[in-house]
Design brief:
Pfam families: Glyco_hydro_72 (PF03198). This protein is α/β, with parallel strands linked by helices and about 450 residues long. It is about 30% helix and about 15% strand. Strand 8, helix 7 and strand 9 form a beta-alpha-beta unit. It starts with 6 loop residues before the first helix and ends in a 7-residue tail after the last helix.
Length: about 450
């Protein structure tokens, strides 16, 4: 007897294939590392490793970043394993990576880092998939968020993924604070995606530029509003300590004063001035109780010499040659132990007051752009395969289908638009392609379920 399939069953096959093409793909399970995850929930102003306070002692790591060609150092297992012994010599526990290929597997490097006791702070943007500070509304689109979410998928199961960064220095001068709502919306969306997909609560935050007019305003903005909207931490790039210097000469005493009582963890995502010879005197202050009541350590810029003078080592193929900065940082880390106990940190986590519009803050109210409708679907279906570093890019992908269509608030796993805009441009109806490979898998499954009967 021949078995026929109704149009409804075939429609189900096509629908399922479409979900597999546009949503959750069939992926090889990624390995999970075995370090104790770092948390912030319920611990106020600090990071914790289990019940112990955790201080970030690390370096920024993006070999080849000065070549103009973006590469993924975590997917390059050979280079990663080449560099880990030098991380160990430095005595670090964290690296920050600025860009990865979210279409590749990272098991080998992440497990090797975990074996060495090293965590990862990861930027989810790449040069092609990021907010455009000159046009944040158009660049905040579903194509961009699909890439961001795919990066989360690629790293969420590793226990040594310490945190995700939703942006780096998007606001880089006194005149582009209008980008702030979009940075905060991405942070909100990332937090919601992590929760909606059932991942552990991996901290999400932003890395801010050292702009005197608005760095603290941005800090308050990222920590105001509902818990859904608040950042899990705030990070700053700071190069104000230039050896020889001191806690007061550098102005770090004012940093501590200005951020005392700030309601979420704070760390330096970049530091290490090169105006003079670097001896890293600031390490002695950063891990001393004069600062640990407010800061949870930081990351030195940067591991490899990329033509800008900041490198700790020079890499030539398989050869790594440490320089005097490497030796100085190694000595500085070894000389300054972490404080005992909680290091003077408060255990109170409190939201700040959102800054009001001013000459230094071009944000009219507390509204955030709603997540684009096409991106909201990923909360339930998953992001699918990432575009990697060679994708077409997202900054010019904004249109009536992919952009935000109003303001919104996030809560309880949903994002609901509260107003709409009529200014969106249209490029016509877009019909996603059917993934024939995925369809063949579905048909094969249905064929098997039908007992191997032939399709008419």
């Amino acid at each position: 007897m021949r078995q026929t399939f109704s149009s409804g069953v075939l429609a189900l096959a096509f629908a399922t294939a479409h979900v597999m093409a546009a949503g959750t793909p069939v992926l090889v399970p990624r390995a999970s590392t075995t370090l104790t995850p770092i948390t912030v929930t319920g611990n106020g102003l600090s990071f914790y490793q289990g019940s112990d306070r955790f201080y970030i002692r690390g370096v920024d790591y993006q070999p080849g970043g000065g070549t103009g060609v973006e590469t993924d150092p975590i997917a390059n297992a050979t280079a990663c394993e080449r560099d880990i012994p030098y991380f160990t010599q430095l005595g670090i526990n964290t690296i920050r990576v600025y860009a990865v290929d979210n279409s590749k597997n990272h098991d080998t490097c992440m497990n090797a880092l975990a074996a060495a006791g090293i965590y990862l702070v990861l930027d989810t943007d790449t040069s092609k998939y990021s907010l455009n500070r000159n046009d944040p509304a158009e660049s905040y689109n579903s194509v961009y968020l699909q890439s961001v979410f795919a990066t989360i998928d690629a790293f969420a199961t590793y226990s040594n993924t310490l945190a995700f960064l939703s942006g780096n220095e998007v606001i880089n001068n006194a005149s582009n604070t209008n980008c702030a709502p979009y940075v905060k919306a991405v942070t909100r969306d990332m937090k919601q995606y992590i929760g909606s997909r059932g991942y552990r609560a991996i901290p999400v935050g932003y890395s801010a530029a050292d702009v005197a007019q608005n760095q603290e305003l941005m800090a308050d903005y990222m920590n105001c509003g509902t818990d859904d909207q608040r950042s899990d931490f705030y990070a700053i790039n700071d190069y104000s300590w230039c050896d020889p210097s001191s806690f007061t000469t550098s102005g770090w005493d004012q940093l501590v004063k200005n951020y005392t009582g700030y309601g979420i963890p704070l760390f330096m995502s970049e530091y290490g001035c090169i105006t003079n010879t670097r001896t890293f005197e600031e390490v002695g202050a950063l891990y001393n109780t004069e600062m640990t009541g407010v800061f949870s350590g930081g990351l030195v810029y940067e591991y490899s010499q990329e033509g800008n003078g900041y490198g700790l080592v020079t890499i030539d193929g398989d050869t790594v040659v440490p320089n005097s900065d490497f030796t100085a940082l190694k000595s500085a880390y070894a000389a300054q132990a972490n404080p005992t106990g909680n290091g003077g940190a408060s255990s109170t986590s409190a939201a700040t007051t959102c800054p009001t519009e001013s000459a230094d803050w071009d944000v009219a109210n507390d509204d955030l752009p709603a997540i684009p409708a096409e991106a909201e679907v990923y909360m339930s279906t998953g992001a699918g395969t990432g575009p990697g570093l060679d994708g077409a890019g997202s900054q010019n992908s904004g249109n009536s289908s992919t952009e935000s269509t109003g303001t919104a608030s996030a809560g309880s796993g949903t994002v609901t638009a509260t107003s709409t805009s009529s200014s969106k441009k249209s490029d016509g109806v877009r019909i996603p392609p059917v993934d024939l490979k995925a369809l063949s898998v579905v048909v094969a499954v249905l064929f098997s379920m039908a007992g191997g009967m032939a399709l008419l």
